[in-house]
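Dear colleagues,

As part of the handover before I leave the project, I'm documenting each prediction I ran so the next person doesn't have to rerun anything. This entry is a single chain, and its sequence is reproduced below.
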Amino acid sequence: MTRAPDIDRLHVPKGSAVPRVNTVLGAVPVDELGIVAIHEHIGYGMPGSELDSRWWKTPEQRYEETVPKLRQFHEYGGGTFVDATGICNGRDIDYYKSLSAKTGVHIVACTGFVGGDTALPHFARASVEYLTEQFVHEITVGIGSTGSRAGVIKVGVSRGGRMTDLDKRIYRAAARAAVRTGVPILTHLAIDPEPAVDIFRQEGLPLDRVLFGHADDGPNAPKTPHAWILEQGGRIGFDTFGYETELEDPPFWARPRRERLQHFISLVDQGHLDSLLASADANCSPLGWPGVKGHTVNYIFEQLIPDLRGAGLDDATITRLFVDNPADFLSIRS
């Protein structure tokens, strides 16, 4: 079995109040999160995919695809799975609650949208004020009638590579909700970050509360100003590990395995360890598309951690990447 880093629980200074994180089964102390997969999906699909009969799956089929992956994640030493599936893209909170109870894995659900282009008209026409209240409600009261509270806010750049007016409204609403509730923001794509940083600063949101995601994928890594984002105080997500050009049928966002790894190691070597997080962005049971064969959240243990060790990172550094940094990022801050 792949060896997890030799870690103890996250160290919290004696006498300090332990921050908490919203999971689908309730808020948990941050020192109980363990190894965190910071950007994953139980199931992700574009709006309307549930109406296409080619992709219908029974609950039994979805469980059959998903439970073994999460159980393996837990057996490898994984503690927490952050589901970055936004509103309109297939969130199913009651299903997540069942999966968490069955597998022992903490699941953190999100509010927000993958991008403005995935928001259905009801939300696409909404004001910043309306969207803010939607996000705050899902964080402080609950998502629908589930009673489960979101632990992170998802935002993203729409297709085309530039932030649209709708994207900017969503980012502003997310910033206001993050300031009010203390939960962080996770972005889909880190391209065109200047308008986002301007919005976050205008709304008084510290940039260490933002993880600029997909900064490592094939098409977008060259367009992402990694150094500039880090200079502003933001965090960088290398969260598409495993989507490699070496795959039999690679997706369009694939990148050569060694190139991605060397890019990541270079940022560690430059002293940015505390601002980096890593994940696999895998789908346990894709919705409305076939997914990428063989790619699961367990790439983290089966390939990524061994690759990081092979590149010279010790267990203390790996623990920072998968335990300490995610815990600090996910903690609800008053």
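The domain at 20-330 is CATH 3.20.20.140 (TIM Barrel). The longest strand covers residues 35-40.

All the best with the project,
I.
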